[in-house]
Amino acid sequence: ALLRRVLLLGEGNFSFAASLCGAGGTQVVATCYESEEEVEGREGAAENARRLREGGAEVLFSVDCTKLKDYFLPEERQFDCIYFNFPHCGRKAGVVRNRELLARFFHSSAEVLTEEGEIHVALCNGQGGTPADQPRREWHNSWQIVAVAAGAGFILSNVHPFKAETIQGYKCTGYRSQDKSFCVEGALNHIFTRSTPLSHSKPMSCETELESQKVSFQVPQVLVDKINRGFLELNSNHPVRTVKEKVTAELSQDFPVQNSDHCLSLLQQGPLSGVGHSNVFWIIPSSEETPSTEEISHGLANAALFSHVVCRDRVKSGWVNEQEGCHVSKEYCLRPSLLPYAREIIQRGAFLPGTLHVLSGPVFRKCLISPYSMPVFHEMVSVCAVNRGTEDSCIQMLVNSIKTSLHSLHQAVSSFNLNIALQEAMSFETTEPNGFAALEYQLSEIQYFICVEMDTSGSQEKGFCVGTIRTAHHELASRELAVVFASLNLDLLAMLLCGISDWRMLWTPDTRFLHQFPRGELRLFKTFSLYPPSYVHDVSFWLPDGEQFDEVAFHTLARQVSGEAVVSIQLRDSFQQPETGRRSLCYRLTFQSCDRALGCREVAKLQLLFREEITQRLGLTLR
């Protein structure tokens, strides 16, 4: 078996290193910043160093933690764990100097740590500046360890008390660079791991079937890392698939079920009745191969080339005629819902009364930024034709099946109460239910919302709408039949059941997410990125004269530029110049990643890029 290589930095008297020496399967390299002569006078240091060497450990002196690769040959720079207990610049160094020390240490550690390795940093109570510190210092007066580590690509994955009394022979030393102990009561051990890098996805094209022919289209940049992820495929262990399978299995107990989600086009023809252009992703399909991603750099530089190819292909395919030139006679968008496909099943007459047809797949909607507002999620639509007069009975059977399946999943995950209720749409006349991203054309048809409320620690949280139910009579030629449609947001259900507080986590490329969910099982999610740092930037701009401000486009551009690193956008101020009537808005953007390291320098670059993009794309004038 391979030895686990452990590097210890800043050892004062080697007592911590000595406690680790002799552990099976571990190779210890213990280092000290001072020279051997300086350390020898410390109580117990010489004896501990001797014990370490006798136990097969390597002991090094005069090692600078900010230049680690200088002390090890390339083949020796692969440590599985790095310990740095109570780092300090020495004497009366303030928080700023100690932050700088940590920043340089993390960058240096990145050069000698294995990909799956850990960094353990023990700090005195309050120094770290995280909510785990009790009492917690003000941020500006702390070492800001999570933000400092993020700058080198590390995330805080665990934190627990540093219990010095449980470490055999350990004695802390080094108070103000002297051979004196210091108080470690309430000290914390912070465990950091490597983060997956922030995504800067290249433009890509995608194929789908449209009007009985294969077409290609350029994927909107904000969705590049979310297209064709295969969450619902047979070999997937994603919680979204587990929810879908459990609900489908329960429905099959009460209905004959037919899965009808194969070969559903990603594109739908517009305009969609009553849907504003700003809420959907409009697409220009091409019947031939689209230009390469290099040709369509950022989807902007060669837009003219792309338009030319598209227009040529539309003439060839009959979607436009020669005289129309580049005028598009048909509009297409990424599907915002699967309901139109359910309607097609009914309108084609491809159904048996009483049979429940189930469709599922990702749908795409532009929306404002919030933890529960998703520009893409997996929708599950069930449609059933029943005898008129039995619609209410069918709805009740559907709701009971959904309730049973969700309660079954929930009981296996956690102990808090889960309440599922059917609420009439009329009760939401003034506000939309939480978690429901509405399309205007659906609102008038919705009769019921399927709502979930969770009772945790005796206080009831706000309910979430996880689905809708509607009936229709005009879909069928037969006057004897009526149609019942049910729609579920599988992503939101998975979040609520597994305790996931941010929709972005469902799409993380970090393998630590899916490793928590065995095939066919849901579990309470445990985050691998604790207390992620947040950064606030304000942007003020003048609106173009006479034009309506498209806030959804503003949020969508923030998503795209930041790679979904913007967690909140709030309007701070609105001003109108009395003399000219010009309007100005000020928005506050909060940057925070739920799964990746996000440093202040990277955020500064992102906000500058965002300011450039809103002037070019939205015609705004910065103040």
UniProtKB/TrEMBL annotation:
PROSITE patterns: FDX_ACB (PS51447). Its EC number is 6.1.1.20. GO terms for biological process: rRNA base methylation; translation. It is found in: Mitochondrion matrix. The keyword ATP-binding applies. Keywords: Aminoacyl-tRNA synthetase, ATP-binding, Ligase, Mitochondrion, Nucleotide-binding, Protein biosynthesis, Transit peptide. Residues 530-623 form the FDX-ACB domain. It catalyses: tRNA(Phe) + L-phenylalanine + ATP = L-phenylalanyl-tRNA(Phe) + AMP + diphosphate + H(+). GO terms for cellular component: mitochondrial matrix. One of its GO terms (molecular function) is ATP binding. Its main location: mitochondrion. Belongs to the class-II aminoacyl-tRNA synthetase family. This is phenylalanine--tRNA ligase. It comes from Brachypteracias leptosomus. The gene is Fdxacb1.
